[in-house]
Amino acid sequence: MKIDISKLSYSYNGKKDVFRNVSFSMHAGEIISIIGPNGIGKTTLLNCIMKLITPTSGEIWIEGKDMMSMSYQEVAQAISFVPQSIIPSFDYSVLEYVVTGCAPRLGVFERPKEKHYALAKDAIEQMEITHLIHKPYTKLSGGELQLVSIARAITQQAKIILMDEPTSHLDYGNQIKVLRLIKKMVNKGYGIILTTHNPDHALLLQGKVAAFDRNGDFHFGECNQILNEDLLHLIYGIPLHLLRDEEVNRVVCVAPNL
Q1: pTM for the model
Q2: Which helix (H) or strand (E) holds 35?
Q3: Which neighbouring-strand residues pair with 38?
Q4: Domain spanning 2-254, CATH class
Q5: Per-residue pLDDT at 114
Q6: 67: pLDDT strictly greater than 80
Q7: Whole-angstrom distance, CA of residue 258 vs CA of residue 89
């Protein structure tokens, strides 16, 4: 599975660009972390890739096929989406909600079968939330909802998964757990595109980085090659430092003393 994005731009009402001239490609088995300041267009870019909104200009190709010529069902079979927040509307159990991830592969009036419930249960086990399986998802905390939403995306069986700030509602322990799961999913052949406000998450995940700076300019490349202190200053407007920590055997992003 491959996605190609070429010269993509988006603006509201044809006026000021939210983002402009974004180009990159990704394959299943790769990870891309999208970073940038608030309001720069990270979520809007994901919405364009998911065909939830139409870009002002540019093209998106899925396996060589123009996405605009594809049905929403075809796109959903290739790409799944974990939104930043979920507003529960029906009193489904967690299992019943997660199994709705199979919808793009069902007929109009087809109901989930045993094999679909097996996929949902496996995804719930992967997220280590089996204790929630029969709980109404309207009764879950924000963090629990986020884990359930990722399980639903796994059940969808798309090879590319978009995640909009997948750690935003999670405590620190669950943030690391989700990042580890993302790494495992990439190793299993999934392609993951995620947004994050934490540049250290991009350093933990490695892979590639897509960065919007405060001027709206787009930067793309391998994490170790593109993510440097100058770019971080352009993105966040404050001096951040990249230091090698031998104890954890990786580069970490740290702020100066307050």
Answers
A1: 0.92
A2: strand 31-35
A3: none
A4: alpha beta
A5: 94
A6: yes
A7: 43
DSSP string, 212-240: E-TT--EEEEEHHHH--HHHHHHHHSS--
Would you call 78 helix, strand, or coil by DSSP? helix
What is the C-alpha separation between 139 and 141, in angstroms, rounded?
7
The whole-number pLDDT of residue 56 equals: 94
Place of tokens 């608030």: 38
Query: Scanning the structure block, which residue is given the tokens 């202190």?
Result: 229
Closest by CA position to 128, among listed 86, 181, 169, 89: 181
Q: Tens of pLDDT along 174-192? A: 899 889 989 999 999 999 9
Cβ contact 125:155 at 8 Å: no
Domains of the chain, by residue range, sit at 2-254
Question: What radius of gyration, in Å, describes the C-alpha atoms of the chain?
Answer: 19
pLDDT tens for residues 144-170? Answer: 888 899 999 999 999 999 999 998 878
Task: List pLDDT tens digits, range 23-35.
Answer: 999 999 999 999 9
CA atoms 121, 126, 132, 135: torsion sign: negative
Q: Which amino acid is at 6?
A: S
